[in-house]
Amino acid sequence: MLPDAFCTESANVMPGEEAAFSASRAADLISEAFGEELSFGTAGLRGVIGAGTSRMNVYTVARATQGLSDYICAHYAPEDRTAAVSYDSRIKSDLFARTAAEVFAANGIRCRIYRRLMPVPCLSFAVRRLGCAGGVMITASHNPSKYNGYKVFGNDGCQITEEAAAEISEMISRHDCFSGISSLPFEEGLASGLISYIDDSVFDDYIAAVKKESLLSGDPNVDREIPIVYSPLNGTGYIPVTRILSECGFRNITPVEEQKDPDGRFPTCPFPNPEIREALSLGIELAKKCRAELMLATDPDADRVGIAVRCGDDYRLFTGNEVGILLTDWICARRKASGRMPKAPLIIKTVVSSYLADEIAASYGVKTVNVLTGFKYIGEQIGLLEKEGRADSFLLGFEESYGYLSGSYVRDKDAVVASMLICEMYADYRSRGKTLAGRLEEIWSEYGYSLDTQHSFYFEGTGGKERMNRLLDGIRAGVASFAGLRVEKVTDFLPGLGTLPPSNVLKLDLEGGCSVIVRPSGTEPKIKFYLSVRASSAEEAKKLEKRLADAVGEYVK
Question: pTM here?
Answer without folding.
Answer: 0.91
